[in-house]
Prior knowledge:
The chain is of the alpha/beta class. Helices cover 47% and strands 16% of the residues. It has 18 helices and ten strands. The chain has helices at residues 3-7, 9-19, 21-24, 29-34, 39-47, 55-75, 79-98, 106-125, 173-180, 196-200, 209-222, 239-250, 268-273, 276-286, 291-297, 328-337, 358-373, 410-422; strands at 130-137, 140-147, 156-162, 186-191, 227-237, 256-260, 315-320, 342-347, 383-388, 394-396. Helix 9 (173-180) links the parallel strand 3 and strand 4 (186-191). Helix 5 crosses helix 6, helix 11 (209-222) packs across helix 12 (239-250) and helix 16 packs parallel to helix 18 (410-422). The longest helix is centred in the N-terminal third of the chain and has 21 residues, at 55-75.
Amino acid sequence: MTVRSAGQSWALDIALAQGGFDALHPAARGTMEQLGHDHTDFDKVFAQVKSGAMLPKAWATVAAQAEERAAHHEAGGYVRTAADLYARAAVMWGRAQYSIFDADDPRKMAFRERCNHCVARLGALRDNRVRRVVLDFEGKNIYALLHLPVGEVRDAPAVLLGPGMDMIKEDYIYAAERYYTSHGIVALSIEGPGQGESRANGLTVDLTNYERAISRYLDFLSDLPEVDAQRIGMFGISMGGYWGLRAAATDSRLAAMAGFEGVTGDFETIFSRAQPTFKSNYMYMADYTDEDLFETELAQRMPLGNLVADIACPVFMGIGEFDELTQLEQALATYERVRAPKEMRVYENEFHPLGGTAAEVFRFGAEWLERALAGELSTPGRDVRHYVHDDGRTTDGTACPRWWLGTTPRQLAEAAGSAASAS
């Protein structure tokens, strides 16, 4: 835990007690629903939470209730109802284990076992179309869930579903089925170094091993008869967007990359100005206890810089106007450095969770990838920009807010100039 996180934990507790989850992540409920959290479960959990210490108990309590109901329906032969409840229980058991930041805590391991059990029952009730995947990786293991469409599938497009730093592979169960497999697309929801079971089993994240893990997942998908190895894309949220851009720059097999709320700025914002839990979480993922070493050895080396200029596949970037982890002008500067076919949408008045547009974002990201993997968005020089107003209008041709009055922030001007000279 960082000094700032320890010293300000009381402030986070007050925010939870007074404002619930929205006090920490404004309008995030919509995003949580897209990650498989039924709103009634969500309300039950946060009705019990008045401090951060209460989170594991609350998630575990409501998860157990959903799992018990799932078993009841399974015993009665109502398999679809049971499967839905197992999925709800799985994501809540996942939240319960995530809330404990000690890989050796037996409670964390017990919650993970319940999560795995619920996923196993879900897979069994859905004709083995949800399958657990364990791959060897640099002397340890990485973990994923394979989601397959109904029926016989051969040479289909596939999408890696990349979680943010505080997400796990189970968070994509709902989205995988609704937005991908139901449209004939194979999906693989992943955990990279530092996340979920990978971290629990000793694999921590460093500067470059996450994109190598993505390459390992590409190996796996490419060998499946269900998958067309030439049509594999990635959808990433938050840090998943960051890692996805790194992977697209270093592995040409990735045929398209769509990222929302990606952390693409200077990392000073997320680690020094945002809620202190973000830095604590990442230090845990990277197995650092010394803040100074974390800063010099990792954090200061994390900005993408000109790495994105090496991307060749179509890229989509979406971000809230007031994302608290990446300043908009820095995200736009990263976009300027991309030389591949690209598209960007900025969502007015939205914060990091993009909660007010979550259902649209998840659907649009999936449809954009479907079109990109079909070769529709690969025109050299393609550069499409939109500013999405919260009243339903969309300004085309620019992603800059109108209140900037046509001015260009310094970071954006410098990146545009650099990109122009490079080309």
